Amino acid sequence: MFQGSMVALVTPMHANGEIDYPRLGELVEWHIASGTDAIVAVGTTGESATVDFSEHCQIIQYVVEKANKRLPVIAGTGSNSTQEALELGRCALKSGADACLVVTPYYNKPTQEGLYQHYKYLAEQVNLPLILYNVPGRTAVDMLPATVSRLAKVPGIVGLKEASGSLTRIDELVAACGNDFFIYSGDDDLALEMISHGTRGVISVTANIAPAVMHAVFSTALAGDMVKARELNEPLLDLHRDLFLEANPIPVKWALAEMGRMGPDIRLPLTQFSQEHHAALRNAMLKAQLI
């Protein structure tokens, strides 16, 4: 199963909002060369909320074809519509993706039973490994450990990206779900510490701009050398914080533009990174020796 440093890949765009496929392909190649352990295509960092359905499927297919089995591709296929999530899962399967990452339905605020039925239905209908994604700060719904434990017993549901920001929650999840269910951090600032609590890696924003170091940090940690892993992670600490000075992926797209990897363009309702934050993020990038 997937583990290590997995990038929640941004979606490069032109100023007119169209997808910049050449730059997207270059990012895929960079991650492969840098040792990234898996790519998440069109997750929430990839602006899944504002690409349309056909674009969503096209981006998944493009990333899968570019990766060409050189690393796993996990397709972001979540939606607040169960039927749309199903159709996106079918696109991922047809494209040859290795798994689906499915965020909890946002805005609807389903009950815990609704969450269970949503994910159970998707797992039964799409023959791909399914990774749950809990990020209550963005979705207004929190999938509780008891619900995750129920879902961990559903065939095809293999893991969880947990972004509640709580080490206590990780302990509860590991205890409830057992070692065969893979839990990943969705919080870069806590991800390394969470390894000691039983997680298997991170689905990361920081890995967009520091893929080689993030791979080194988590391969070292998973090999059992937490002292060395903390040393490797130390230059990234400011970056883990400052990449969230504004709503993700605004800062990380700006950072990639500063590195010359792509343009900073983003779709409304998100806007360009505010000038007032440029110095802080640039200093964090300098500390991490990225520029």
Total domain units: 1
Q: pLDDT average, as an integer? A: 97
Radius of gyration: 18 Å
Distance between the termini: 34 Å
What is the CATH superfamily? Answer: Aldolase class I
Task: List low-pLDDT spans.
Answer: none
Q: State the name of the first-level CATH class.
A: Alpha Beta
Multimeric organization: single chain
Major beta sheet, strand line-up: 7-6-5-4-3-2-1-8
What is the chain-wise order of helices and strands? EHEHEHEHEHHEHEHEHHHHH
By DSSP, the count of extended strands is: 8
In terms of DSSP E residues, the strand content is 5-15%
Which fold name is given in CATH as the topology?
TIM Barrel
The name of the CATH architecture is Alpha-Beta Barrel
Shape: globular
Class from secondary-structure proportions: alpha/beta
Task: Report the helical percentage.
Answer: 40-55%
Largest sheet: 8 strands, parallel
Number of alpha- plus pi-helical segments:
13
